[in-house]
Specification:
Largest interface: A-B, 26 and 23 residues
Helix content of chain B: 55-70%
CATH class of chain A: Alpha Beta
Order of helices and strands of chain B: HHEHEHEEHEHEHEEEEEHEEHEHHHHH
Largest sheet of chain A: 7 strands, mixed
Number of helices of chain B: 14
Strand content of chain B: 15-25%
Number of domains of chain A: 1
Helix content of chain A: 25-40%
Oligomer: heterodimer
Distance between the termini of chain B: 26 Å
CATH topology of chain A: Rossmann fold
Strand order of the largest sheet of chain A: 1-11-10-4-9-8-7
Chain lengths: 245, 412
């Protein structure tokens, strides 16, 4: 195993073109009723295009906070965050929404599908917010579902699908906009081990096709599917190791 | 997200949550139905009062010289007693006025009471017995369908002839020809010389149950003490001339009764406006109270919608989080919830409009009121309803839009 950081980054620099994610001294404080909690204390991480990275760490290590920041759901207290050559750490709410829409595909532990909507409509959602007209939107969503093997489940609602199928709908939804990164938060947390293995197969395929994947997990055997494992402890990076290919 | 998308989504959500949607639409529904219904009723009553009621009872450009007002909404006892002490309108008064007016007018004597009319063994009770002079038919626009009206000679001579209303003729003669037949009023025989055209009814009371005989015929004894009449009717050809004629009549009557300048008239000149005055008072009350009630219904409807939308936002916090994580901007969420509440309100408003129209149609069919739905009230109803929906939706929608996606996603 080797250390993964490719080069040093200083404030004022711009990332190299093949760096999809770059954080520089990224910090996030929470004000918990007068007491300030330092969830992240200055994280430097660079992720190249087509990397498959697992982020690990015990609870309270800051991995969820890092996940939210990378996913543009949250903004840092200090430091820089560059996504795909664009500095997103100081963007407004609506600009962050646009980034989430175009650049990031989320896969959540609890799937987070709309319960009353069909698979197709769930997959359509990002395209709706991208402003795509109904006709091409439906076609593109249908293609995304077919890619994950759910072409015959388009009219089904989430409660008519198995856990694995739901997670695949979520993956189809995450990828329908062809985002720069697939961001998975404990994607196997609600799945049995057989289905988990299947899902990791899907991730491996996507990775082979060139998809950048960042996955938060606390399971070592799941993290083992990734080519690089970053471990957080107390808001800082403890280890950052690349598996020999 | 475009507007059409938001509305489509709103319909989906409304379909998925039927009961809640019904409740929130009900408030607006009631408000709008009430607005349109009440509006059409008031409108209908207005038309009815101005065109039919006043026109039928008094007539256009016509005034009545009477001892006291006939249409009296509510007067105090003392006023009433004062009116009863006034001298009646005598034959001499009527003649003096008719001869004294220099404006071209037509005049007629008129008196009325209720009594029985008999033909053979048949008896019609509570018939309007009217004593009049020949121009009465012109003033009241009573057309003769069969036979003729009485002549000036018959009127002056007090001949025992009469014209009867259609309903009365039907009742007494049951389809046989009434002309030339002899009917009895208080034992005195009168010859039927005419039947008037059907006039319909007024507030459900038949206008065709009457007899009209010459004022100085024996019918005089049925309707008034000797030598007096209920009213002298004066019809001018225009409003202006009617006003002028009224001035002259007042002068003639005051001098005949030797009234000093400081004394009030002890007679009254009643026009259809007098009747409408009474209606105007009711109308003003309705116009003051109506909008208030509509407003209350709409405010209540708005509060219901706001509550339900707040509940919806709380319930769907996670959905909002998911949508935000997928790239929904604040304005997308705002639009979604606004569209939902506005659509709910619009559904309520449309149903309200339909019910309001139904109400007015039913009223039209069941009562003599010509209730008519005004397009303005429909537009206003829909506009107000949807407006309430939007206003009530703003607060919940902006709360939804401001939700932090991380917090929203964490919610179970």
């Amino acid at each position: 195993m080797t250390t993964a950081q490719p080069m040093t980054f200083r404030t004022g620099d711009t990332p190299l073109p093949d760096i999809v994610i770059l954080t520089h001294k990224l910090a996030r404080d929470y004000d918990m009723g007068g007491e300030v909690v330092h969830a992240l204390r200055g994280v430097d991480i660079q992720i190249r295009r087509n990397e498959f990275v697992a982020i690990m760490g015990p609870s309270g290590s800051g991995k969820s906070t890092l996940m939210n920041l990378i996913g543009c759901l949250d903004t840092p207290t200090a430091g820089e965050y560059w996504l795909n050559g664009q500095k997103v750490s100081d963007l407004s709410d609506d600009e962050l929404a646009r980034i989430r829409n175009k650049e990031i595909g989320f896969v959540f532990q609890t799937f987070n599908l709309l319960p009353r909507a069909t698979s197709l409509h769930n997959v359509e959602l990002p395209l709706i917010y991208a402003g795509m007209p109904a006709q091409p939107r439906r076609q593109q969503a249908a293609r995304a579902l077919e890619r994950v093997g759910l072409g015959d489940r388009m009219a089904h609602k989430p409660n008519e699908l198995s856990g694995g199928q739901r997670q695949r709908v979520a993956i189809a939804r995450a990828l329908v906009n062809e985002p720069s990164i697939l961001l998975a938060d404990e994607p196997t947390g609600n799945l049995d081990s057989a289905t988990s293995a299947e899902l990791m197969g899907v991730f491996a395929d996507l990775h082979r096709q060139g998809q950048t994947i960042v996955m938060v997990t606390h399971e070592h055997d799941i993290a083992a599917h990734a080519a690089r494992v970053v471990t957080l402890r107390d808001g800082l990076i403890a280890t950052d190791q690349r598996r020999a290919a | 997200m475009r507007f059409a998308e938001a509305v489509r989504l709103a319909f989906q959500t409304i379909r998925a949550q039927k009961l809640k949607s019904v409740f929130s639409a009900v408030g607006v529904f009631i408000g709008v139905a009430f607005l349109i219904g009440a509006w059409s009723i008031v409108n209908g009553m207005n038309v009815y009062m101005t065109e039919k009621f006043a026109g039928t009872l008094i007539g256009v450009n016509t005034f009545h010289l009477r001892r006291r007002p006939n249409f009296t909404p509510n007067v105090s006892d003392s006023t009433w007693r004062a009116w009863r002490r006034r001298p009646r309108i005598s034959f001499e008064d009527a003649d003096a006025v008719s001869n004294g007016i220099t404006i071209p007018v037509i005049t007629a004597w008129w008196s009325e009471d209720r009594g029985d009319v008999e033909y053979g063994s048949k008896k019609a009770k509570q018939v309007s017995l009217q004593g009049a002079t020949e121009r009465y038919f012109d003033i009241r626009n009573i057309r003769i369908e069969q036979g003729r009206a009485f002549t000036p000679q018959e009127a002056r001579g007090g001949t025992t002839v009469l014209v009867m209303g259609h309903d009365l003729a039907d009742k007494l003669f049951e389809g046989r020809d009434p002309l030339g037949k002899s009917v009895r009023i208080h034992g005195i025989p009168y010859r039927v010389i005419g039947v008037a055209e059907r006039r319909g009814n007024l507030l459900g009371i038949s206008l065709d149950k009457f007899v009209i005989a010459p004022a100085v015929s024996p019918i005089q004894r049925e309707v008034n003490p000797p030598g007096v009449i209920d009213a002298l009717m004066v019809k001018a050809s225009s409003e202006v001339e009617m006003r002028e004629a009224m001035g002259q009549v007042e002068g003639i009557m005051r001098s005949r009764r030797h009234l000093r300048p400081h004394q009030d008239d002890n007679f009254v000149l009643e026009t259809s406006e007098g009747v409408l005055d009474f209606w105007g008072k009711i109308n003003r009350i309705l116009l003051a109270v109506g909008p208030g009630l509509v407003l209350i219904a709409l405010v209540v409807g708005g509060i219901v919608i706001m509550n339900i939308m707040l509940m919806a936002v709380a319930e769907r916090t996670r959905e909002i989080g998911i949508r935000k994580s997928l790239g929904a901007r604040r304005r997308d969420i705002l639009r979604q919830f606004l569209a939902e509440s506005a659509t709910l309100a619009a559904i309520g408003a449309v149903l309200g409009v339909a019910t309001g129209i139904g109400l007015s149609v039913a009223l039209n069919a069941a009562t003599p009121l010509p209730a008519s739905v005004s397009p303005v009230s429909i537009a206003l109803g829909v506009l107000l309803g949807a407006g309430v929906g939007i206003v009530a939706g703003v607060y919940p929608a902006s709360r939804a839009a401001r939700l932090d996606p991380i917090v929203a996603l964490r919610q179970e």
